[in-house]
Write a structure and sequence with these properties.
Shape of chain A: globular
Helix content of chain B: 25-40%
Strand order of the largest sheet of chain B: 1-2-3-5-4
Largest sheet of chain A: 5 strands, mixed
CATH topology of chain A: Transcription Regulator spoIIAA
Number of domains of chain B: 1
Radius of gyration of chain A: 12 Å
Number of helices of chain B: 4
Distance between the termini of chain B: 38 Å
Radius of gyration of chain B: 16 Å
Largest interface: A-B, 27 and 29 residues
Strand order of the largest sheet of chain A: 1-2-3-4-5
Number of strands of chain B: 5
CATH topology of chain B: Heat Shock Protein 90
Strand content of chain A: 25-35%
Helix content of chain A: 25-40%
CATH architecture of chain A: 2-Layer Sandwich
Oligomer: heterodimer
Order of helices and strands of chain A: EEHEHEHE
Strand content of chain B: 15-25%
Number of strands of chain A: 5
Chain lengths: 108, 146
């Protein structure tokens, strides 16, 4: 399934909604979208992942990229699928991002 | 073993995952085991394309096939790029994995996930080809005695 992507910025919150499969071939476009969103130096980056069905290590490297580009950035992952959470936990990324299930939990 | 051939580019990743998914489901793997096998093959195929072919200035194909050997599902990925044995790659250790993202090294995550995703990855390189074999042990339900 090709990757679907939609980005927006509201106040201090940048959002990127991802659906489909994030692999080595679709990752450069996502990285570019994140790069663009971070140009406004938002406080938070919310990645909406409910419809993301596959994420390879190329996706993890985008999280590293975002955090290294802007160290004070808070990264929220909204509703990632169980299997994606599994990858985040195994690789230690789970502790470095906010994984939330509800929109209301995005704050601070 | 019947083999399917794809060009050795990143565009091949999606059809390769589709192929692996189909084989895994036919072998009776559950959703999680299927996903992990797809991820393992995807990560290695990505490395073959980026490092074995592109970085080395080479062009070539990726061949994929599968077989059942005893109680194992075996996926074979063959290429003709620069040889690269995932079992001799420096993997991130516990300390690296606990590192904050701000100071994380970027490398090694793909192979870490690949090795985690299957029971074994065997690698052989010869003048003819490089072959990665992904092994998944199939667990059988104990036979009912009633």
């Amino acid at each position: 399934m090709p990757l679907e992507m939609k980005s927006s910025t509201e106040g201090n919150t940048a959002r990127l909604s991802l659906g489909g499969e994030l692999d080595g071939s679709s990752a450069p476009a996502v990285r570019e979208a994140v790069d663009k969103l971070l140009q406004a130096r938002p406080e938070r980056l919310v990645l909406e992942l409910e419809k993301l069905t596959f994420m390879a290590s190329a996706g993890l490297r985008i999280l590293i990229f975002a955090k290294q580009k802007q160290q004070n950035l808070k990264i929220y992952l909204l509703k990632p699928q169980e299997i994606v959470i599994d990858t985040l936990k195994k690789t230690g990324f789970y502790q470095s991002v906010y994984v939330v299930d509800r929109e209301e939990d995005i704050k601070g | 073993m019947e083999q399917y051939k794809f060009p050795g580019t990143l565009d091949a990743l999606e059809p390769i995952r589709k192929y692996v998914e189909g084989v895994a489901q036919s072998a009776g793997l559950d959703h999680k085991a299927t996903y992990k096998l797809c991820l393992a093959v995807d990560e290695i195929a990505t490395n073959v394309v980026l490092h074995g072919y592109e970085e080395a200035g080479l062009n070539g194909d990726l061949m994929i096939g599968s077989s059942m050997e005893n109680d194992n599902l075996v996926i074979e990925l063959e290429d003709h790029g620069k040889p690269y044995d995932p079992n001799f790659h420096a993997l991130p250790n516990a300390e690296d994995l606990a590192e904050r993202l701000e100071s994380r090294e970027i490398g090694g995550l793909g192979i870490f996930l690949a090795l985690d995703g299957v029971d074994d990855i065997q690698y052989a390189s010869s003048a003819k080809a490089n072959v990665h074999r992904f092994i998944v042990r199939l667990e059988h339900e104990p036979e009912s005695t009633t």
